[in-house]
Design goal:
By secondary structure, this protein is mostly helical. It contains 8 helices and 2 strands. A hairpin with a 7-residue loop joins β1 and β2. The model has no long low-confidence stretch (mean pLDDT 93). The structure holds zinc ion. Zinc ion binds next to loops. InterPro entries: DUF5662.
Length: 184
């Protein structure tokens, strides 16, 4: 695979994902987040690395980590995109617990939730079901322990609701019960 080909393939991958997330965000009334989601992937810092380490089957960030010992693209990305819980890791107020996950505003938890749905739809294709995102979460590496307990609880509630009741019911719940709270 030549360099230009990989730049093009990477562009298609991130744009397709962005469009899927935008559609879900719009269904939830999150227009601004839908438009801005992952925009920094088009910055030179992130795009260049994504194209250089394009894999096709897994994140280029992992390949960059293996190559140079850390992922400059990911560090740039997570510092700018509030739907990643890693963005919210900061020193605990007690001065003793060190770095912990701060409570995320609900609208970013919802964006994180639809980000996971979109990723599963791409990965699973016609094998995708309403359980896919929950299964992915449950098979997870456990990195989520860095999430604030309330943030984690909301994410889990949404994942279980999606698995058991489907998209329509879950999206209605999000619009009526999760997002309205923070809107006045
Ligand atoms: Zn992102």
């Amino acid at each position: 695979m030549n360099k230009m080909g990989n730049a093009w393939r990477h562009f298609c991958t991130i744009t397709y994902h962005k469009l899927l997330v935008m559609r879900e965000c719009f269904r939830l009334g999150l227009y601004r987040q839908g438009v801005l989601h992952d925009l920094s992937k088009y910055s030179w810092t992130e795009f260049r690395i994504g194209a250089k380490y394009y894999q096709g089957t897994r994140s280029p960030n992992n390949a960059e980590r293996e190559a140079i010992g850390y992922s400059s693209a990911w560090l740039h990305h997570k510092g700018r995109n509030r739907h990643h819980y890693e963005y919210w890791i900061d020193y605990a107020l007690d001065g003793e617990s060190g770095l912990v996950g701060m409570k995320m505003p609900e609208k970013y938890v919802v964006e994180m939730f639809v980000d996971r749905i979109a990723a599963c739809k791409v990965y699973k294709k016609d094998q995708y079901t309403n359980r896919s995102a929950l299964e992915y979460y449950e098979s997870g590496s456990g990195y989520e322990k860095m999430m604030h307990p309330e943030t984690q609880k909301l994410l889990e509630t949404l994942l279980v609701m999606l698995a058991e009741q489907g998209e329509e019911a879950t999206y209605l719940y999000i619009r009526e019960n999760v997002l309205k709270k923070g809107m006045h």
